[in-house]
Amino acid sequence: MHKTVIVTGGSRGIGAAISLGAAEKGYDVCVNYLGNKEAAADVVQQITDAGGRALAVQGDMSVEADILAMFALVDRELAPLHALVNNAGVVDVKARVDEMTADRLTRMFAINLTGPFLCAREAIKRMSTLHGGDGGSIVNISSVAARLGGPGEYVDYAASKGGIDAMTLGLSKELAEEGIRVNAVRPGVIRTDIHASGGQPGRIERVKGMIPMKRAGEPEEISSAALWLMSDEASYTTGALLDVSGGR
């Protein structure tokens, strides 16, 4: 039986790697994107060219109406939902807390924390045995910043990911008897364009010396961890916070 995964922020970087990997595992894939329609279309094309089924869905994951519309479209167009990957997230420019504006904080928490909560809510309504579903998996993409704190750069980002960790732990216990496993992957420094979007295109070279493995990770290395947590091989794993960070 076909089953569907929704990957928020699924058009680039870690999200694209998870979308492509999930399709290889037989999932129908909802590739959510915010603004880069071409990147999302490319991921969908790669999946369909390989014989899979995918749908690109534009939506701002900080906007409840967009989230509701995305889930409704998946209900109509794809197989029953079996997994959610809360991957969409942002960083901002390097700043100390005493330099941060309320608008920056509102945006950060809306995208990185409120959005995942709302997506989880909608996934639970479809997957929980309490609601007549067949169970499933939620994988949250957190960050090792949640335990490192991001001092001098992005304490707000780290705090939002700390919230994701707490959500993962609480929700895993809340849903354990309802057939839904909830886990998180905590990436370290990964080779994606998120660093440039935060105004630090050279960040990997600057910080890789602090990583025990002395290199950045690749998106596929995060995808492998997320796909394992989604799989039946992780059937007794819930509430896990899995660091994939090169030892940092």
UniProtKB/TrEMBL annotation:
<keyword id="KW-0560">Oxidoreductase</keyword>
<comment type="similarity">
    <text>Belongs to the short-chain dehydrogenases/reductases (SDR) family.</text>
</comment>
<protein>
    <submittedName>
        <fullName>SDR family oxidoreductase</fullName>
    </submittedName>
</protein>
<dbReference type="InterPro" id="IPR036291">
    <property type="entry name" value="NAD(P)-bd_dom_sf"/>
</dbReference>
<dbReference type="InterPro" id="IPR002347">
    <property type="entry name" value="SDR_fam"/>
</dbReference>
<dbReference type="Pfam" id="PF13561">
    <property type="entry name" value="adh_short_C2"/>
</dbReference>
<dbReference type="InterPro" id="IPR020904">
    <property type="entry name" value="Sc_DH/Rdtase_CS"/>
</dbReference>
